[in-house]
Structure formats: C-alpha cells, structure tokens
Amino acid sequence: MPELPEVEIVCRGLNDAFVGHRLTKVIRRFAQLRWPIPDDLEASILGVSAGAGPRNEGGSEAGSEAGGRADGRAGGEAGTEVRTEVHGEVRTEVRSDAGVLRSVQRRSKYLLLGFDTGTLLIHLGMSGTLRRLTAAEPTRAHDHVDFVFGEQVLRFNDPRRFGAILWYGDSEGPGGSHHLLRRLGVEPFSEAFSGRLLFDATRGRSASIKQVLLSGAVVVGVGNIYASESLFRAGIRPTSAAGRISKPRYERLAASIRQTLTDAIAAGGSTLRDFVASTGQSGYFQLQCFVYGRGGEPCRVCATPIRAIRQQQRATFFCPSCQKA
DNA sequence: ATTCTGACCTGATTGC
DNA sequence: TGCAATCAGGTCAGAA
Asked: Which region, left, alpha or beta, applies to residue A204 given φ > 0 means left and ψ of -120 to 50 means alpha?
C-alpha cells in the first residue's frame, strides 16, 4: 500500500497527465470498496442531474477525439447541460468544459481531484493503484473503475478493496470540510509541523510514540514503514511513551520524518508489493530501509541485530542500541 | 478522552 | 504438490 510518498508520486503523475483534460465517462465495474462508490458519480462530476434522461446517456461521446485541447470552437459540440443550485434557485446553463479536471491535490493519503462541480476523493487503501492507459487496454482482475478522459483512461485497481472513491459536491461545502479530512493532523511538509507541535500535542499521552505517529491525529502521512524508519533516524524507541519524550528529541524526530519522506519521494516511492505509478511504470527502486523488514539483521550503523516486535498488531522494527527509550 | 480491538478484503508467502 | 495458517504498506467504528 502506498504511504505518503507513493501517494505524492501518484498525485504528481495525475497532475502531469490529466489536469486540463475533460472527463467524459465513468465506468464502474464493481462498486463495493471500503464504502460504496456512488452510483451517480459520473452525473455528479459532469453536473448533470441523475434523472436527466436516458437519451443523453450513450451518444454524447462525439467530440472526444479532440485530445484535450479545448480552445477550438468545437463546431458540432453541443456542450453539457449543467445545473447548479444557488440559494435554492436552480440555474441551468450549457457548459462545454464540464468535466474538465482542474486540479489534483494530496491531503494526507487522500487524492483530491477538483472539478467545477466538486471534489473526487480517492484513497488507495492498502493495495490500490491508479494507472494511465489507453481506453482499449483490456481490464484485469480488480479493475473496479475507469475514469475516461477521451482517449486515455485512469484505471483504479484494488484487490483488497480497502480503498475508497467518494464524491464531495460543491453544494456540501469546500472539500476540506469532508468528515474524512476534517480531523486529520498537519501535513509533514507544512510550516505548522515542528518538534514543538509534536511536544505540545503529546503532553500527558501514555500511548507509544509510534502509535501516535500512525494515528495521524498530530501529523499525517507517516505509515507503518516510515514510522519505524523515522524513529530510527531520530534515535527514539518506538515503544517510548509519547508524553515522556523531550522537546529536543521531538525536534530531531520532526526533522527525521521530513527527511525520511523526502528521501522516499526522491526514490520514486518505495516499491514493496504492487505499487504502480499513475503512468503504469513500476520498477522504482526501494528506499533503502535502515530497520523496516530487517529483523535479526545487523544494524547498518552499529551492527547490533535489529529487533522485530508488534505494536497494536503492526510490525515494528528498531535497533536496541541506536534507539533509546 | 484515550486506548485498544475487530473489521473490511485478496494474495503472496510460509510451514507442515 | 497441496492445503492451511499467517502476514501485508490503512483507517474507521465501536468497545473497554
């Protein structure tokens, strides 16, 4: 599963390949992910009310060979009927650029695809991938959804179905207020993230520091691998009570988290199982881990055998010599 | 309020 | 070779 660096790589890939292009169709082959994929997703994105009539359904693909260039007058293009509700007043207008993907952003491990009508939330869960393919590419097992952008397709595949595809319409407020995003901690690369924040947020907490990092309530994007790696670089035992770690050590931890994530992004995201970039390329080399997955092997710094334990049913790795309680 | 457990799923790997 | 048990990068909902 993608941790933050992988999601960041996918986010950049989506920006390069799809922003400015127009979504023409959503093909939903299997709807049951962590939550059901809305059945009116295509209509929501395109701004067409769900009951707008079956005549519109099939034949509206006429202008899709234009390859994403929208400046031409598009002679025969009828445009798409868009209905917006403003203060209870329903307006109908014809918009030829309905469905154009305006932006792709990452918040924690959520991908936020911005359309004029609202925000598409995508989470890759543990095993989700997004690939960029041509529309003719045959589907494989667990290819649940296609987002068709003319000739190219963004295809969502997720064997374990822990991922999510949700819609957050503009009428529901800005996407950032979605309940899944509202309680998230700060971004690790934001100004707000610091050793002081970690220190202040953990006073009185008896939970282990690794548990606090994984919870995402203070800082987001530190998954199971990078929690172990960051704590190693900071010289802190994963089992230490978060409330008993000093401010200087938290300063070091904040820097370690940033550095670990930066290194992983630079490496193209660590490739463990089935991560594939949105371009469909795989074969990124894996970030060289100091401790993760190296139980029993010698520490790369001091040669002491790395210890493997379990915390909250998750694998944790640390060097008993380099990392102090 | 904080902390912990179970649940959601399939697939790869391990051990008998 | 086959089959069962175990594990996997996330995170939500609910119980203790």
From this structure: left
